[in-house]
Structures are given as C-alpha cells and as structure tokens.
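Structure, all three chains, one model.
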Amino acid sequence: MTAEPTSARALTFFDEVVANTPGGDSRLELCLQCGTCGGSCPSGADMEHTPREIFAMIDAGMKDEVLRSNAPWYCVSCYYCMTRCPQEIHITDIMYTLKRMAIREGLYKKSSASDAPGFSETFISFVENNGRSFELGLAAVHHLRYHPINAVKMATGMGLEMILKGRMAIVPTKIKGIKQLQSILNKAKELGGAA
Amino acid sequence: MKYGYYPGCSLERNAYSYHQSTLAVAKPLGLEFVEVEDWNCCGATEYFAIDAIPAYALVGRNLALAAQQKGDDKQLVAPCSACFLNLKKTDHYMDESPELAEKVNTALAAGELHYEPGSVEARHLLDVIVSDVGYDAVAEKVTKPLYNLKVASYYGCMIVRPRALETFDDAECPTSMDHLMEVLGAEAVDFSMKAHCCGGHMTQISEPTAFDLIRSILKNAVDNGADTIVTLCPMCQLNLDAYQSAVNKHFGTDYNIPILYFTQLMGLAFGIPAEELGIGKELVDARSALTKIGTEAPPKPKKKRPSKKALPMPSLLEEA
Amino acid sequence: MTKKEKVGVYVCHCGTNIAGIVDVEDVSTWVGENNENVEVSRDYKFMCSSLGQELIEKDIKEKGLTRVVVAACSPHMHEKTFRGACQRGGLNPFLFEMANIREHNSWATNDKVAATQKAKALVNAAVERTVQQTSLEPIPVEINANTLIVGGGIAGITAALELANGGDHVYLVEREPSIGGHMAQLDKTFPTLDCSACILTPKMVDVGQHPNITLLSYSEVEVVDGYVGNFSVTVRKKARYVIEEDCTGCGICEEKCPQKVVDDAFEANLGYRKVVYRPFPQAVPNYPVIDAENCTYFKNGKCKVCEMFCPTDAIDFKQEDELLKIEVGNIILATGYDVFDARRIKRYGYGRLPNVFTSMEFERMVNAAGPTAGDIVLRDGVNVPKSVAIIHCVGSRDKNFNEYCSNVCCMYSLKFAHLVHERIPAADVYNFYIDMRASGKEYEAFYHRLLEEGTHFIRGKVAEVTNAANLPEEEGKLIVQTENTLIGKQIRVPVDMVILSAGIESRHDANEVAHLFGMGCGYNGFFIERHPKLDPIATMTEGIFIAGACQGPKDIPSSVAQGAAAASRVSSLIKQGTVMMEPIRAHINEDHCSGCRICNNLCPYNAIEYHEDKKVSEVITALCQGCGTCVAACPSAAISGAHFTNEQLLSQIDGILWDVKSELKMEPA
C-alpha cells in the first residue's frame, strides 16, 4: 500500500488568486506561457509586466511584485486576451481579482498606477450614494485629487464643451430606491469573498 | 416586438443622443421598449475592481427589477456595451456558480428582491436590430439612403467578447453593423481596427496609453477613406469624439472625423430630422461629413482586373 | 440454482495500480467466504507474470477447478493471456471470465472504501457468470490473400508496394485523380532537404506499373461487408469522362481546354488549372479527368474542344460512375489528413490581407513546378518580399481550434525559413513560435543550422496580423503583433509577407469513414489504434489496420514506417492462412421460432436464412459475427448468443447486485 500524504499542501499565493476569482474556475493553472495575452493587450506596451509574466510571477509566489505592478490597473476589460487565450483562461476576471487583492493588501499605493484605484473608488462612491454614476463629479473629484492641472484643462477645454453641449449634468441623478440599493450593497459587502 | 429597456447612466446625459435616436428608430421598426423602473448603474468596469460581491449585487438588482416587470418576454435590451456585458456576464456567472448566485441573492434579499439566473436575457441593441428586426425590414424603412457616405463601423470590445458568452457576431471580425450600413445605402469601408479597444477608462489613468489607442483607431478609419465612424457604445463615442482634439494636440495630427451612433445614421436614412436624433451634440461636428450624402446611388465600383501575373486571392470563409 | 461449480478466483495487485486503491486481500477473502461456488481465492502481485499464470494452471490440475475468474485489468490487455493459462491447465478457455478492477475501478477513483466495495461486486458478478458459461471451440476462418488499401499518399503507397512485392495482390483506392497525397505537393523535405517529388515519383511509378497492384484512382469505397479474412467491398469509380483504355496521356486536351479555374486542391489556391486536367505532370495514373462542375459543356451543352482535339477519341461525356465489387482479406486505411483552414483564425487575416499566405500555398510557391516557378513573390506576382514572418501553431495547441500539437509545423517552418534565406539572401526572416519542437532524427541539427543562417526566432504566439499602421515604418506593411515572451515586451514587427504554418487535422469525413469500416474515431477525428503504445497499427476491428496521418499528425518517415508496419501485419495474417475466430455466434432454437422473419432483415451480415418448408429461420454460423442484433430483436426469445446468453448476463447482474438482490426480482426474459 502507498503511504498517505502527511498533510495538505500549504495554501500559496496562486491558490489565493484562484480562490478569489468568481466561480473558482479561473483555469489559471493551464497557462502555457505563450504570450497571446501580452501580445493582444491594448495597453500591453505600457504595462510593467505583461499578463503572461504576471501569471508566471503568481506561480512563483511573487505576491508583492504582482500586487504592486501597474498591469492589473492598465487592464481595460476589452476581453481580447480572454477571447484569444488558447487555454481559455479567464484572464480579465483574474485582472479584476488582482485589483481587489492589491487594494485589500494596500500594495497598489506602491505601484506606478497608484491613483487608478482612486478613480474606481470615486466612481463607485457616486454610485453608492445616488444609484447612478455622475460623470462631472467623477471627473472633478478624480482630477482635483490626482491631476489638478488636468482639472483646469477639463474645466476650460473639453469638459466645458461637454457641459455647453448639454452632455454633462451639473447635479447627479438619484434613484428612488437608493435606500434599498444601499441595503443590498451593505449586505453584499458583509458577505465578502469572490464567490 | 416588446422588450425591457436598460439605458444605463451614459444615455441619460453624455450619450443622450444615443437614447434619443434609439427611441426614434425603434418606433418605425415596431420595437417597443419598456424602461426598467428605477434601474441603477451597472458598475461599468470599476465596481469589479473594488469588491466582487457588491459588484454582482449591483447588477443583480437591475436583473431582478427587469425580471419583475417583464411580461412574457425575458429579453432586456441595453444600447451600452458595458451595461450589456455586465448584465449578461452576471446572469451567466450566477448560472454557472450556485455559490455566487446564493451570495447575490442573500444581498438582494436585504432589498426584498430575488433573481433567478436565466430569467432575463440581456441583448445588445445592435443584436436586436440585425437579428430580430432583420436587414430586410430595416431596408423597407429607408427613405433617404445614405448614398456616397463612407462609414467605418466601429464595434469596440464588449459587444462581441468574451466568446464564452456566445455573442451574436464574430469576436475578431464582426460584420453585422457593416451590413446594416450598406442596407442604409452607405459604403462600409475596410477597417482593421473595428474591434479594438477605444481605451476605456485609460483616459483617466494614463492618457498616453489611451491616446495611442484612440489615434490608431482614428488613423485607420481616415486611412481607409471614412467620412465618419459609427459606434454602438457611449464609452467608444466619448473617447473617439471628446478626446479627438486632445489626441491631435498630443501627436500633432489633425483628425477631424465625426463619431456618430449607428442609430443616428439609421434615423437619417429613415428620413427622421437630424435634431430629433441628437445630431449636433457631438464635439467633432458631423455636418460637413453628412453633406456628402448624395441623392443618387454611386455607380458600382468596377472590380479591378488583377494583372496576369497576380496570384489568385483566397476567398473568405463567409464566401466559401 | 444450477449445480455447484469449482471456481478459482485470482485478484491481481498489478503492483500498486490496483492494490494502491483496492484492498485486494479483503476482496479475495470476501469472495471465498461469501460465494459458495468459489473453491479457491487468492491475491497475487502480478497475475500476468509466468508465476501468476502457473498458479492458475496448478490449481486447475490439483484442485480440479471447473471455472476461473481473474480480477485484474481490461480484457483487452490480458484475456488472451489467461485463456492460454486455462487451456494449458486443461480447462476450456471459454470457462474463464475477467473482472476489470483497474480501468473500471482503481484508476477511476481515489476512494478506497468505495473501490473495494465495487471490486467485490465485480468479482462476484464474474463468478456468477462463469457458473453459467459453457465450453466453446474457436472457429477457423480462411484469409483471402488480397488486400484493400484506402488512400494513395506515402503511407498507402508504401504499404501497397510492400505487400505487392511480397507477391500478394493489392487494390489501392484513391479519392483524387492521382496518387501521391500531400507529399506530392511539397517542395523540399526536412531536415535533409531532399526534393519531395524526386523521392516520391519513382514509388508512384512503381505502383502504377506493378502487376500485383490494381490502382483505382478517382474512386471511393461505398460499402464494406464481412469480417477479417473475408471482406466484400463496393468501390465507386467516379466518371472521369475519359476512356482509360484509349487515353495515351498526351495532354492535348488539357492544353486546348479554354476554361481555367483556381486549383484549390493540388495548388492549394495559389494557381489555376484547366477543367480537363491532371493534378500535376507526374500524376499516376496519367489520364486526365474532366471537372464536370466547371466544364462549359456540362454547364451549357457547348464546347467539346477536348473531344475535338483528342487524337484517340478517348473523351466520353456520357461516361457514368461504375460500382466495382472486390473481395479482400484485410484492409489498410491510410486516408491521411486535411490542412487546417487558416481562414478560421480571423485575426491572422488570411483571405482578407493579400500577402498572408498559408503553408501549403508557400510549398507550391517555392516548388519549381509550381505557379511561380519557384520564385518567392507577393500576391501581386511581381514584388519580392524583403521580410517574411512565419507564424507557428496556426490552429494547433489552441483549445479554440485544435488542442494538440500538429507535430510537423515547427520543422517545416524551419524549412521555409531556410528556403527564404536561400532564395532571397537579403531578406529578414522571423519565426514566431511557442515552443520549438525538433525531436526527430537530425531535426535539432537542422534547427541549429537555421540559427546559423540568421533567422530571427521570437518566442511568442502571435496575437494578430494587421495592416493598420501606427508608425511611418509600418505603412504599407503587414504588422505582426506579439509578445516577445523572452523579454516580456509587446512588439510589432512590420513585414512584407506572412506565412501561416497551418496544422494537421483529421479528414473532414473521418467520422463517416470510421463508421463505414466499423471502427473507432477519437474526438478529434483521428482513428483509434488498438493500443497507443503496443499496437498503433491495428484497430479494434480484426483485419482493419491504419497507417499514416489518419491515426494522428505525422511526418513522412513515421508515415512510411507505419505503412510498412501495416503491410507486415497483413502479410503475417496472409501467411497464417487461417485465423481462429471467437465462437461467439447466434443460434436459433427451432422449437421457439415463430417464423416471423423479423431477424432476417435486421442481420447486418445477411447471415440468417428462412426455411420455407419448416417455417423457421436459421443462422448460418460461417457468416454470423455475433453482434447480437437478432438476439435482442427476437420477440419469442428463440435466439441466443453463445457466451452472451440471457442466463449468463442475468447471473452477472445478480452477482453485482448481491447486496440488494433479495429486494429485486429478475427473471430471464
């Protein structure tokens, strides 16, 4: 008879990424390192690590380096990588997972894309308060916080034009069921986890 | 044909002309859109980056509301690609993962809602028009064909991907909108960048990255002789239109190509006045491009006879 | 209950293959204690070893066993082994039964308790079945010495010549107008760079002239009846509209024919051919065919130029397909492969971007007898490329298309790079690969040669090929976008020409062909061999063998080796003269037969005869294949299948359900 394995393998960073991806079916373990994702990515040229490289780093347990990389924040959710991946890996979903983990671990602050989570956070704060997104508020808050010069450019240039064309609301719209939505979101936050 | 209708935040304001033109062409096509009451934002590409379960619950509320108000029909139309993808993806993932479905429904229960995966089918507006209405029915409504207008059909990313969601057109080389433009009398130009990314939110995170992408799309359309680029997503329209002057400044280029919604061109071809379609709201003025529309069909371009030495060109899969 | 038998049960450990999951000792003890028919039960490390077999022989002799059960692997592996042991011990081999507790059990689970439980049920079932089994004698069958070979590529040609040279007759059926297969299209062959036609055409000529080979080109197999030793095959010889006896192969018809079409077969779309044509000048046979679909006469009823000019009146527009019946003892399938259709990968632009070529187009382009007379040029037929990108793994190693490696593309891509270097010394050549696979004899050396020749090797699966230029140096070029995975950077390489190294696929009609010959076909369409390691040549159907790429992607040396191996297997059977067939046959009990004749028409082998005088049907044992169709169909239960009687099968089921049997009531139908 063969010997029983003495204990279960310790959980790795790789396991953590997989467990935090919806449905638990990221297929990340199938990566062939072919580079289709890195070649297809619209912002691939500006990423510090291509998605393929990120996957090799995840497998190597390089948690800090992965969560500090600008790569997840440069993902535009275009799904090219996921459509083309020869191993059908859920790459876009994994990128979302890495963003969440980077925020949770506070590591994004050390990344060159350190203001990217701020954009997402500002966006959702409007959604959480009103139920709808609010472009003017988003642009104003985000740029004042991170790019004051841009904020000035916005206010005088394209932003102004948008307002004049009636394409930007001055005040946000609030849905009727905002209380209901907030209860739902608060409950969801309590549940936590990926899925 | 009756559908649930989910306009999404952009169509309220920055893409109001898309909303306007959608409703304007829906009428003659016999499409009845019933707006989901008190819908909320879909979270775009931002909420998933922060917290997964609330992001799914946010979309879940819309699906639950749509399911509640639907009659016999379970179709929910979204004109915005990001909204469409989020609705479809949430439904699909809830269906695939009972664990996710349970969490989303526990959250929804806090708002006295429930959503059974599969009870609503999210559809993109373009899909409904080409698949349900059909090209022939569209052709019947054309009173002012868009003769001479050269159009680059720009699909962007989220309408045709990812493949796991079984989209209605090819993920790499979609053609449905090109055919639609031809039905309207316009000429669909070759456009390699038609399914590439417009940069999404990168304008806010890294302008050079976004500008590179925007420029390559504008350049490819102009190189191929397009008078206008038609889009089917507010984010694509915004990036290509509102950032065009910034891109010109950044690269020292002088692109001046108007970005319209496909529904606006449909409306024009149906004889609906431009102002009822929100034309004029675009930052890159479309008027000069639209003056190219002629009253007579252009002569069929003669097929160039290849030289004697030329090797035969393989046929495309669709032609075979 | 029937009389008590003395059953010997042997539970095999198979090293740890079975014993690692199944408690073999427990199974053996349990069956010995709980089944009254078991005389002796043992567990043993390797039952298939000579010591294991001797154990059985000894027990038969010493303990007077009347039945034997071995619980081990699949009967496909060792049924024959243990039947032999029984025979040597003096027991009829058909009183033996095997319980599969490996493939069906220990290999399928990690749950030891459940696996042991299942093993007990399977062993008990086998014991119950053997008690009902009866002695049977194998049936000798004579082998017809003629062989049918389907497919005239290099594998089929090799097999045909081997058998014919040995003195046996071969019918070689080829679907296309000429034999030669894909190899005839190729220019050079890797890694030695032999001219493909130079080494192939002598063999084609041999086939065409061999007295022992009947070549049926432009023909397809339609019906296959019979069994090993005695197959009866119907072949459709498609109308060529050329009288073979009168045609001298002078080629005047082809020269005078006014109608030209793109040749999507031999020239892989790159060139044109006439409507009356031979695929290539060295075609065997040398008679042309008329492509009726494109022929002006067939379409409009006018033209007949070929008929007018033919010096021997060999054109016959009224010719019709012929059905030929041939009798053979064995069949070799060498039906080859299809090339992956590169148009399916839209992002590589084939069919949309003129200067994207497929590998087969490039083979024809570099071939001196091809459409450009060997010149490497762009689609305009004039300009010479200064830079060429060769993209590996097109349609291979990709779950969206074919998951497997196509085996030959790395090597032919290296060959392409070499040919570009040779003919356009100033050109830059880029090979985009995922992994370089050069595992054949002298293949690695060829890879090194290309490194020396200065090919740029970029590790990265190409993301897309586009004509959308971003930079001035990209204008008017094809841009290959990929990640250079060795430096971790996205790159864009502008080139003049792109070659897509398309993979190998099973034939589009492989499933139908497998069905026609009564054999298996894997999910990706390649024919299933009897055993992936030890018998990649035979199939599960006796008398049917496979050779070449129809079994899986393969290069020329492997196809030739398998073709010769298949011939040798057939030769061996022919030399034996007779084979012993399993005596598994149907038998009709005349007393129970109502003469309804339902079975008569159902029998796929026409093996049932109706006796008008007695109003009963009878099975002709020599023709019956033991398929069991009639047994199942008989409304009076008058037909039984030897070794598969109702009693045997129901006892087996009873044995499996030993723990719940008392609650169920099962009676023979």
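The two ends of chain C are 17 Å apart (CA to CA).
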